[in-house]
Amino acid sequence: MSSPPASHFRDEFAPDCLLQRRVRKPSVPPTRPWPAERIEHWPIERLIPYANNPRLHSEADIDKIAASIRQWGWTNPALVDENGELIAGHCRIAAAAKLKLTSIPVIVARGWSEDEERAYRLADNELAARASWDFDLLGNELRDIQPSGFDLDLIGFEPDRLEEILAASGSSGLTDADNVPETRSTRHSARRRVVAGRSLGRVRRQHQRS
């Protein structure tokens, strides 16, 4: 009488979890290429803005993006579906038109469902908006950049906000306006304060005369 194979005894005394692992082979979902695996250059007129895009951009937003592209070039390709409809990058495309660019880098979301495209339009903006700043480190970075003469306005902060960050960050707690590194933004804010002060002075003198 022949003995059962050794594998029989191994399976007979193996834990249930191991037996299940042997029997149930996990099905691997079909993979699809990542959009960023291939960057293409498309003529700008081939791109179709999404008609129901809920993200709003002011002219000031577009100007800032245009200035960024002018300084650093195109660093973030627009994301489009296979028909050329925009999924992410509406503001960049508006900036490209303002700069009179004829073609731009794009990445194509191939094989995405309509729901995936709609969801990513929202996620692309909302996920990035969840981040916050360490204002001490941010202020240090800005102050380290400033002595080179680099235009801090290109980073995107509004002038007053930039001035607040430079003044409030760091262990030294810069609060003296004379100690705030000068940028085009801070010069602009200073000029506005001077104009406002002159206007207030004129109002006070007129009030005193009356």
What is the gist of this entry?
The protein is an alpha+beta fold and about 210 residues long.
Features:
Conserved hypothetical protein from pyrococcus furiosus pfu- 392566-001, ParB domain, single chain, 210 residues, alpha+beta, 8 helices
What class would the helix/strand composition place it in? alpha+beta
The main β sheet shows up as: 4 strands, mixed
What is the averaged pLDDT score?
Answer: 79
What's the tally of helices?
A: 8
N to C succession of SSEs: HHEHEEHEHHHH
Number of strands: 4
CATH architecture of the largest domain: Alpha-Beta Complex
Question: What number of domains?
Answer: 2
CATH topology of the largest domain: Conserved hypothetical protein from pyrococcus furiosus pfu- 392566-001, ParB domain
- Radius of gyration using CA atoms only: 29 Å
What's the shape? globular
**End-to-end distance:** 125 Å
The level 1 CATH classification of the largest domain is Alpha Beta
Secondary structure: helix percent: 40-55%
Verbal overview:
The structure is a single chain. The chain has 210 residues and is an alpha+beta fold. The chain folds into two domains: 35-129, Conserved hypothetical protein from pyrococcus furiosus pfu- 392566-001, ParB domain, CATH 3.90.1530; 135-209, no CATH class. The chain has eight helices and four strands; from the N terminus they run ααβαββαβαααα. It has helices at 6-12, 16-23, 59-72, 90-98, 114-129, 135-145, 159-168, 184-209, and strands at 40-43, 78-81, 86-88, 103-109. Strands 1-4-2-3 form a four-stranded mixed beta sheet. A hairpin with a 4-residue loop joins β2 and β3 (86-88). α6 (135-145) packs across α7 (159-168). The longest helix has 26 residues, at 184-209.
